[in-house]
Design brief:
alpha/beta; globular; Rossmann fold; 247 residues; single chain; 24% strand; seven-stranded mixed beta sheet; two-stranded antiparallel ribbon
Length: 247
C-alpha cells in the first residue's frame, strides 16, 4: 500500500486531510487504560475515528462476540481497519446515515471516542447526536488530550505554541480541553461520568511520582506554586480517560 509523501512541516498534512495521520501515528497503538474502563461484556460497539482498528481489535480480543463498527475518514487506515473489525465506514461521522445503516436507537453498548473529540468542530453536538444510540447499559469511552500539561504551559510561557504532526499540539486539533472543561462538556450534553482517570505523561514521570508532596514546580520560564495534589496530577497528565453514560 502506497503511503503519502513525507511531510516537511506539520501544517503540510492539512493539505491532505484524508491521510494526515497515516505517517505520524503508531498503527499498533491502543489505549489500554481506556479499554480497561469497559465494565461489562458488550455485544455491539462503535469506534469513531477508529484509524487502523487497534482499539477495536483489543476490545474484540477480550470480548470475541462483540460486533465492532468503525468510522474512519482516512481511506488507507479504513482498509487496514476492515481486517480487524466487522464493519468500517470510510468517511466522516457526519456522513454516516445511522438509520440507513440499520443502527437504531439503543443499538450500541459501547461507543469509543479515542482522541477524536478534539478534532471535531462541534464535539458537544457529536456527544448529543450519539447519546440516543447507546443501549440502556451502554457507555461512551473517550480519551481527550490535556491542554493543562506542563509541556504546553512551559512552551506558552516561553512565547511558543508549536504545532506538531501529532501529540498534544497536533496541528489538526480544533478544540482544546482541561480536566474541568472535559467534565463540563459531558455533563452539559446529557451524560453522567462514572469513571475518570489520568493517563500520565512519560515526560513528567518524576513529577507524577512526587505529586503528593509537590507544592511548587518550575520549568523554564514557568513557575507554578500553591499546587494541590489534583493540580500536579493534571499538569503531569497526557490524556484524560472518561467513561460516561446517558442520563
Amino acid at each position: 500500500m502506497n503511503k503519502p509523501k513525507q511531510i516537511d512541516f506539520p501544517w503540510d498534512i492539512l493539505e491532505n486531510t484524508e491521510n494526515n495521520h497515516w505517517l505520524n501515528l503508531r498503527q499498533d497503538y491502543a489505549p489500554v487504560g481506556l479499554v480497561n474502563m469497559l465494565d461489562f461484556v458488550p455485544e455491539r460497539g462503535l469506534d469513531v475515528g477508529c484509524f487502523v482498528g487497534a482499539t477495536s481489535a483489543l476490545i474484540k480480543s477480550r470480548h470475541p462476540g462483540c460486533h465492532m463498527v468503525g468510522i474512519e475518514p482516512s481511506q488507507p487506515a479504513a482498509e487496514v481497519a476492515r481486517t480487524r473489525m466487522d464493519v468500517v465506514h470510510a468517511g466522516l461521522l457526519e456522513e454516516v446515515d445511522f438509520a440507513a445503516e440499520g443502527y437504531g436507537p439503543g443499538h450500541f453498548d459501547v461507543i469509543v471516542l479515542a482522541d477524536v473529540l478534539e478534532h471535531i468542530y462541534n464535539p458537544w453536538g457529536v456527544l448529543k447526536r450519539l447519546k440516543p444510540y447507546l443501549s440502556p447499559r451502554g457507555c461512551i469511552l473517550a480519551s481527550v488530550p490535556n491542554t493543562r500539561n506542563l509541556s504546553v504551559l512551559s512552551q506558552l510561557a516561553a512565547g511558543r505554541w508549536r504545532y506538531e504532526p501529532a501529540g498534544l499540539l497536533d496541528v489538526t486539533h480544533i478544540r482544546f480541553f482541561t480536566r474541568i472543561e472535559v467534565q463540563e462538556m459531558f455533563v452539559a450534553t446529557g451524560y453522567r461520568i462514572d469513571a475518570f482517570t489520568h493517563n500520565p505523561d512519560p515526560r513528567w514521570e518524576k513529577i507524577m511520582q512526587q505529586r503528593e508532596t509537590m507544592r511548587k514546580i518550575t520549568v523554564g520560564k514557568l513557575t507554578l506554586s500553591d499546587l494541590t495534589l489534583a493540580d500536579v496530577t493534571e499538569l503531569a497528565t497526557l490524556q484524560f480517560y472518561v467513561r460516561a453514560r446517558a442520563v
